Amino acid sequence: MLDKNNQVFMMRPDRREQIPVTSGQYLYLSVSKVWIPVMIRYSEQMQKWFFEGMPELNIFHRKVMIKD
């Protein structure tokens, strides 16, 4: 989820809780029932959020998690 200040939040479907995500943070992306570690970044030049190494992949509506 992207807010009006261009910040990204993860949504917890079980609690409707918003968890802020920062550029340079590691997440785990679900791909074909496998969790892949990825870094999320924001590019001032491109004016968009992306997964490092996969800039063409849309970050929104993806199943991700953060490990504690």
Describe the structure.
It is a single chain. With 68 residues, the protein is mostly beta strands. Helix content is 0%, strand content 49%. The protein is built from no helices and 6 strands. The strands form 2 sheets. A 4-stranded antiparallel sheet has the order 5-4-3-6, with no helix packed on it. Strands 1-2 form a two-stranded antiparallel sheet. Strand 4 (34-43) and strand 5 (48-51) form a beta hairpin. The chain starts with 7 loop residues before the first strand and ends with a strand.
Describe the structure using short key phrases.
two-stranded antiparallel sheet, 4-stranded antiparallel beta sheet, 49% strand, 68 residues, mainly beta
Summarize the structure.
With 68 residues, the protein is mainly beta.
Backbone shape: globular
Q: What structural category do the secondary elements indicate? A: mainly beta
Strand-and-helix sequence, N→C?
EEEEEE
What is the radius of gyration computed over CA atoms, rounded to a whole number of angstroms? Answer: 12 Å
Poorly predicted parts: none
State the strand order across the main sheet: 5-4-3-6
The average pLDDT score comes to: 84
* Number of DSSP helical runs: 0
Q: How many structural units, i.e. domains?
A: 1
End-to-end separation in angstroms reads 21 Å
Count of distinct strands: 6
Characterize the main sheet.
4 strands, antiparallel
Query: What percent of the residues sit in helical stretches (DSSP H or I)?
Result: under 10%
Proportion of beta-strand residues: over 45%
